[in-house]
């Protein structure tokens, strides 16, 4: 992939017929985390008028390059959304739950104070990001939990058709689209 100069991977999404929801297999998640290029999970449906795009951003990092990558993802998604049927852009950030072992090992530890502090940090980072791009607050979501649980749940709730995810390797790696389209770069 890298030596061939490819900048995109297309993969058919697994769709549950009864739920009409996309199911992510362990192989999908491995690809999404490790692929050095964006991955489009493609499902065979037309793009709806007023569809929704979901951008999963890393709000916890103190590394400046993460902010630049977040901004690049949001910018590219907004550009794509403007070209595709009045697509709404939503941002999502997931924050971790209190580690149980800390609460057990440190009786004086207050999980609610910890959760409030972590959520507050994520909300401030999300506010700064959304304001930079003029995104309304109701289009941003900061949820407690693991990204691999929070993001698909929110995508299903919003019926999002495009999703961008971060890889642990710091590359934007996942975009789900209802039909394959080519973007000029």
From TrEMBL:
Location relative to the cell: Cytoplasm
A Gene Ontology cellular-component term: cytoplasm
Keywords attached to this entry: Cytoplasm
UniProt keyword Transmembrane present: no
Keyword Iron: no
Top-rank taxon, per record: Bacteria
UniProt family annotation: Belongs to the universal stress protein A family.
Name listed for the protein in its UniProt record: Universal stress protein E
Organism of origin: Escherichia coli
